[in-house]
């Protein structure tokens, strides 16, 4: 990790001067995604089975995880892990209940009622990455806000292995969280299956959940026919540290995020050159102890950096420009500086609130805006699974008091039909 001094004047160019993440040829991916999605849209379930055979090398009799498979999954997962999932579920549900909005109505003038009706989306699809790894935390973080919102049907889809099985941890987490169905379909073909359905599966109204480039581009392609949560990029953490920070903790947290993949970004912004040097040494030392050493080396070497700033005010300016997915404030009295943060997906305060606490346990959602989109986006939440409708009621007397103004407005816009709609009621 290179140590770079940063002045206030450097901040506007930091983001563009930061090493670019590896660019994949999205045009090639997009063409492949288009073919997959359109084929499934036109041909339905037969095309889904064909893509599972071609892309996942799996022969399936059914797209759905059966009750028998769910039972076997619970038998294979330890009681300890089931209890951990249940407790994490309680934490996540408790936090997300506070986000739930209610319908409201007001009656400020005689004969007029105005309001907003809030209702849950009816049917949601959740994509969960598969392969050799299981991501039960992703299952919980996507299903539980939907359940709190009141979504009736939640369909999980995840890739099957070559033997046709789904990771038992994914199955157990999905059942604990309250999924309605679990599909054995991954990749772009999984997204297409959720979006357009098959002869035996009703399409969903919105799709959430992370995935590889094919999944992300497929979500972008089907957007408009269904809703999506976000187009997430590689994961990232930014730590703001002063001279009270512990370099050992800082290095551990940088590496925790960098181990996601080679494109993950881990950045330290500090007011202390000594902390910068000590953290750099700690990163090198701790990296040798980690299992995902090859991934870490690529992420740390190509996607990560240490910036030394003159004071915390400059540090916060840099942070707000980067708008990181995860932000850790390892500074003295972090609560006093919380108001200085304008752009971040999730904020972790102090030495004992490391990012993995948010990934698995605390309750706030770990599906967060990446790549600077925290400037205009929020974490996944209950609000993503609800929709709002405006409610308007005027009686005849109330409408009569404003009918001339409305007609004048409509005529100014050249919409005489609008004016007539009002006028007819008083002729």
TrEMBL record:
EC nos: 1.1.1.23
Disordered: annotated span: 1-22
Note accompanying the cofactor annotation: Binds 1 zinc ion per subunit.
Binding residues annotated for Zn(2+), in chain numbering: 257, 260, 359, 418
Pfam families: Histidinol_dh
Alphabetically ordered keywords of this record: Amino-acid biosynthesis, Histidine biosynthesis, Metal-binding, NAD, Oxidoreductase, Zinc
Entry-linked InterPro entries: Ald_DH/histidinol_DH (IPR016161), Histidinol_DH_CS (IPR001692), Histidinol_DH_monofunct (IPR022695), Hstdl_DH (IPR012131)
Reaction catalysed by this enzyme: L-histidinol + 2 NAD(+) + H2O = L-histidine + 2 NADH + 3 H(+)
Family: Belongs to the histidinol dehydrogenase family.
Name the UniProt record assigns to this protein: Histidinol dehydrogenase
Species assigned in the record: Aquisalibacillus elongatus
């Amino acid at each position: 990790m290179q140590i770079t001094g940063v002045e206030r004047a450097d901040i506007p160019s930091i983001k563009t001067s930061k090493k670019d993440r590896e660019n994949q040829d999205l045009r090639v991916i997009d063409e492949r995604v288009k073919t997959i999605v359109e084929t499934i849209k036109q041909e339905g379930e037969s095309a889904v089975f064909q893509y599972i055979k071609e892309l996942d090398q799996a022969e399936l009799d059914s797209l759905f995880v059966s009750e028998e498979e769910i039972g076997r999954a619970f038998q294979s997962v330890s009681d300890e892990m089931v209890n951990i999932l249940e407790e994490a579920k309680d934490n996540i549900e408790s936090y997300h209940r506070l986000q739930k909005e209610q319908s409201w109505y007001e009656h400020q003038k005689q004969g007029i009622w105005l309001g907003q009706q809030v209702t849950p989306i009816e049917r949601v699809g959740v994509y969960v990455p598969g392969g050799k790894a299981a991501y039960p935390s992703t299952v919980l973080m996507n299903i539980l806000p939907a359940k709190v919102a009141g979504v009736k049907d939640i369909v999980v889809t995840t890739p099957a292995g070559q033997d046709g099985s789904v990771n038992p941890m994914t199955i157990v987490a999905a059942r604990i969280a309250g999924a309605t169905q679990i599909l054995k379909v991954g990749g772009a073909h999984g997204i297409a299956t959720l979006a357009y359905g098959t002869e035996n599966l009703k399409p969903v109204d919105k799709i959430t959940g992370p995935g590889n480039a094919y999944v992300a581009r497929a979500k972008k392609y089907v957007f408009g026919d269904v809703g999506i949560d976000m187009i997430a990029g590689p994961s990232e953490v930014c730590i703001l540290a002063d001279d009270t920070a512990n370099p050992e903790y800082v290095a551990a947290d940088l590496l925790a995020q960098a181990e996601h993949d080679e494109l993950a970004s881990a950045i330290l912004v500090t007011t202390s050159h000594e902390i910068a040097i000590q953290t750099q040494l700690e990163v090198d030392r701790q990296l040798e102890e980690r299992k995902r050493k090859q991934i870490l080396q690529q992420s740390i070497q190509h996607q990560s950096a240490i910036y030394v700033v003159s004071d915390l005010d400059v540090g916060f300016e840099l942070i707000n420009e980067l708008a990181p997915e995860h932000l850790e404030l390892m500074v003295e009295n972090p609560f006093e500086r919380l108001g200085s943060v304008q752009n971040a997906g999730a904020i972790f305060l102090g030495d004992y609130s490391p990012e993995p606490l948010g990934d698995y346990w605390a309750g706030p959602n770990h599906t967060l805006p990446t790549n600077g989109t925290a400037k205009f986006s929020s974490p996944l939440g209950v609000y993503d699974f609800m929709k709002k409708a405006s409610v308007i009621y005027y009686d005849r007397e109330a409408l009569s008091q404003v009918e001339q103004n409305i007609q004048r407005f409509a005529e100014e816009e050249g919409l005489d039909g609008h004016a007539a709609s009002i006028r007819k009621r008083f002729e």
